[in-house]
Amino acid sequence: MAIAKAERLMNLALCLLGTRRPLSKRELRDSIEAYVEAFGPGNGATGSDDSFNRMFERDKDDLRELGLVIETVESLDGDIGYLARRDSNRLPPITLDAEEAAALGVAAKVWQQARLAGAASGALQKLRAAGLPEDVDPYGPHGALEPRIPVHEAAFEPLMLACRDRRPVVFDYRKATAAHPEQRHVEPWALECWRGHWYLAGWDRDRGAERVFRLSRITGKVRSRGGRYTADVPDVVTVRETVAGWAGEIADRSARIRLRSGAGYPLRAKATVLRELGDGWDELEIPYGHGLDAWLVEFGPDVVVLEPAELRADVVDRLRAVAKG
Questions:
Q1: Helix, strand or coil for residue 281?
Q2: What is the pLDDT of residues 99-118, one digit of tens each?
Q3: Given the DSSP bridges, would you call strands 169-173 and 303-307 parallel, antiparallel or unpaired?
């Protein structure tokens, strides 16, 4: 369905850009194959005309939201026509200096192994034409660090398209504390990568609140749903702060844990206080924010939570859920 709509919008845009005179709704209806297949030629049938008019208005609004400048022109006879003048829809030339082009080239390299590899490769070719120096090869070994964004989750691509097109989705999601997945109805905002894991931020319709979902816990297929968003989409900075908070990057308290000697080096790196207890155990104070319980579970029997009590309870619940399978 998404591909059919994109093709229809592209054909409508080409018609409006390619004409030298305003085209009426009937002319557009008879010229675009998708309209003809859906409603037949403009023959005056009231039902099909009403349906076509609704779809045409939606398509016109979608093109305008994408940035196409569409003019509505009324002739001397009172007929309404539409066109998109090329001079009104032509972007100024984009010029990049060597450093800007190289930075974008590195960004394209990040996606080399992901699902966007084809798009990134095409973008790199455009960068070459826009000024990326020939001696700068972002796909070559120019440094010890090689930026990559791994994308293995099948949910990534449909969710990326849903975020772009502002389409609500439905998927089955298994929380770390639950033995079985449950269905979630979400208005997706953005995808963010934290510590090598992908997260979706969006509005959970069932709970009436913003939520963050780890893509690796989405089971089955992501299904698109019709209709408009019911909640406002926050700006990118706010979304990133939301993901950071849910992924455990923002800490507002401290937790006290026991850690087996010689284990849990990532926890030791974050510790604000470390005391050797003897008998093969150390005591640590570490920053405590959302998501710490899930992180501590990954260290298994090497970690014992001392306080706060709610963190200890959350870790125990997660371990019990894992034990149940």
A1: strand
A2: 777 777 666 666 655 555 56
A3: unpaired
